[in-house]
Design brief:
The chain has one domain (32-296, 306-353): Endonuclease/exonuclease/phosphatase (Deoxyribonuclease I, Chain A). A seven-stranded mixed beta sheet has the order 5-6-7-8-13-10-9. Strands 3-4-2-1-17-14 form a six-stranded mixed beta sheet. A hairpin with a 2-residue loop joins strand 6 (172-179) and strand 7. It has helices at 2-23, 64-82, 87-90, 105-112, 198-222, 241-246, 265-270, and strands spanning 30-43, 96-102, 122-126, 136-142, 146-154, 172-179, 182-190, 228-233, 249-250, 261-262, 276-278, 281-283, 286-291, 304-310, 331-332, 335-336, 346-353. It has 354 residues and is an alpha+beta fold. The longest helix is centred in the middle third of the chain and has 25 residues, at 198-222.
């Protein structure tokens, strides 16, 4: 699988660096941190919230007597995955996890207090969004690794061209903090869906990308070498207009100039990999991008980008049928499948010399 290929490349590079360091009498050591993003596919609690449309959530559509057990199993599945993302190299759960398709702060509190995650002592950054389905974005962070300096929820204002009505969607979560003292900003996204068709809904995602660009430009106006990570379920592939044109995200690192963006998922898409199946086709809607100062080429102190991946082990993958190789989702046809999510999580490794 692709992640195993990446790990092999990583091992070769690490071996070459170690050999060079030893030959020069310098044994370099590195900290490794995982930064991840995961669409949790309708992580709703079992309470009826009359302020949102949670009656349409899969859990609320189930018989009252089974909701609690389904919710607990869903939390267990999410916790099981999160603790393993990036652990092959970082030897621990991610330092930072952006999430989407969550109902509220309570479900995140239940998640981080699950026995499989409790030991990592995650904190939460969350704001309620005006989304018509009542779903939000959020950020989980290890308190021992990351100190939140500030956060804000950026409102995405888009309107239906046919009637001028506002389209209520997810806000964009912007968090700035220190990862082991290294200042990094993160934008957690869940861009507007393709409801009504890709072409008709495209302007909404272009607008979402433009808001990301505005946030990044604002950060760079304060510090031209700001380290920024853009993550989320974009409902667009890396080669769509929103990412490739509006954000001007680059496939090749040598083409990434100061204040520009690198997207490692462009090549993965071209190589045939996916994070979900949408209308019978594989897509990489889930992505993590980085600004130039996080690349080795920028020669900045602190954490640097090392590699990216898609976490897609066999236990999270359909073994047969129409969606063989795609994510083993939680809900289908109004029932709980026992699966995980309809998206695979994505992650990057950041490394820092110690």
């Amino acid at each position: 699988m692709y992640k195993n290929l990446l790990f092999s490349v990583l091992a070769v590079i690490a071996f070459a660096k170690a050999a060079h360091a030893q030959s020069s009498g310098q044994a370099k050591q590195y900290k490794v941190k995982t930064v991840a993003f995961y669409n949790l596919e309708n992580l709703f609690d079992i309470e009826d919230d009359t302020s949102i449309n949670d009656e349409a959530s899969p859990i609320m559509e189930m018989a009252e007597g089974v909701r609690a057990s389904v919710y607990e199993k869903k939390l267990t599945n999410m916790a099981r995955v999160i603790r393993k993302i990036g652990a092959a190299k970082a030897q621990t759960a991610p330092a930072l996890v952006g999430v989407c398709e969550i109902e509220n702060r309570k479900v995140l509190e239940d998640l981080i207090n699950h026995p499989l995650l409790r030991e990592f002592d995650y904190g939460i950054v969350h704001y309620d969004s005006p989304d018509r389905r009542g779903i939000d974005t959020g950020l989980l962070y290890k308190k021992a690794d990351f100190k939140v300096l500030n956060s804000v929820s950026k409102e995405l204002l888009i309107y239906d061209k046919s009637d001028g009505d506002r389209i209520y969607t997810r806000d964009q979560l912007v968090v700035t903090g220190e990862l082991d003292g290294d200042k990094i900003s993160l934008i957690v996204n869940h861009w507007p869906s393709r409801r009504g068709g890709e072409q008709k809904s495209r302007p909404n995602r272009v607008a979402a990308a433009a808001l990301n660009k505005q946030v990044i430009d604002s950060l760079h106006s304060v510090d031209a070498m700001s380290k920024v990570m853009i993550m989320g379920d974009l409902n667009d592939d890396p080669i769509n207009e929103s990412v490739l044109v509006t954000l001007n995200a680059q496939q090749e690192r040598e083409n990434v100039k100061p204040q520009a963006i690198y997207n490692p998922y462009i090549q993965m898409l071209k190589d045939g990999y996916n994070t979900l199946a949408y209308r019978d086709a594989g897509n990489i809607f889930d992505q993590i991008m980085l600004t130039y100062p996080l690349l080795v080429e920028a020669k900045q102190p602190g954490y640097k980008y090392y590699m990216a991946g898609i976490y897609n082990p066999s236990f999270m993958t359909n073994k047969e049928g129409r969606y063989k190789g795609y994510p083993f989702r939680s809900f289908a046809d109004g029932t709980f499948t026992g699966g995980f999510s309809d998206h695979f999580p994505v992650y990057v490794y950041l490394v820092k010399e110690i």
